[in-house]
Automatic annotation (TrEMBL):
<keyword id="KW-0812">Transmembrane</keyword>
<feature type="transmembrane region" description="Helical">
    <location>
        <begin position="15"/>
        <end position="36"/>
    </location>
</feature>
<keyword id="KW-1133">Transmembrane helix</keyword>
<protein>
    <submittedName>
        <fullName>SHOCT domain-containing protein</fullName>
    </submittedName>
</protein>
<dbReference type="Pfam" id="PF09851">
    <property type="entry name" value="SHOCT"/>
</dbReference>
<keyword id="KW-0472">Membrane</keyword>
<dbReference type="InterPro" id="IPR018649">
    <property type="entry name" value="SHOCT"/>
</dbReference>
<dbReference type="InterPro" id="IPR033788">
    <property type="entry name" value="VbhA-like"/>
</dbReference>
<feature type="domain" description="SHOCT">
    <location>
        <begin position="52"/>
        <end position="78"/>
    </location>
</feature>
């Protein structure tokens, strides 16, 4: 009987070591992942997209479209 009591008391005497030190790694890791996810979503939403006119000008400069097609598409964009 005394041996059983000693086993129970020695387990309790470990104190903070029995709480589970994994929480000291898990909680900061989850906090970091939460912050990184929020930052990534915010950056993706705030990303600037070029205007249709800018895209049209870039395509003309690269030679993807000729002058006639550029002027037609320019009129369409300015009309809308």
């Amino acid at each position: 009987m005394k041996e059983e009591k000693r086993d129970k008391t020695t387990k309790k005497s470990k104190g903070a070591w029995t709480i589970g030190w994994g929480w000291m790694i898990t909680v900061p890791a989850l906090a970091f992942l939460s912050w990184a996810t929020k930052k990534g979503i915010k950056d993706a939403l705030e990303e600037e997209h070029p205007s249709p006119l800018t895209i049209l000008k870039e395509r003309y400069v690269k030679g993807e479209i000729d002058r006639n097609e550029y002027e037609e598409k320019l009129k369409d964009l300015l009309a809308s």
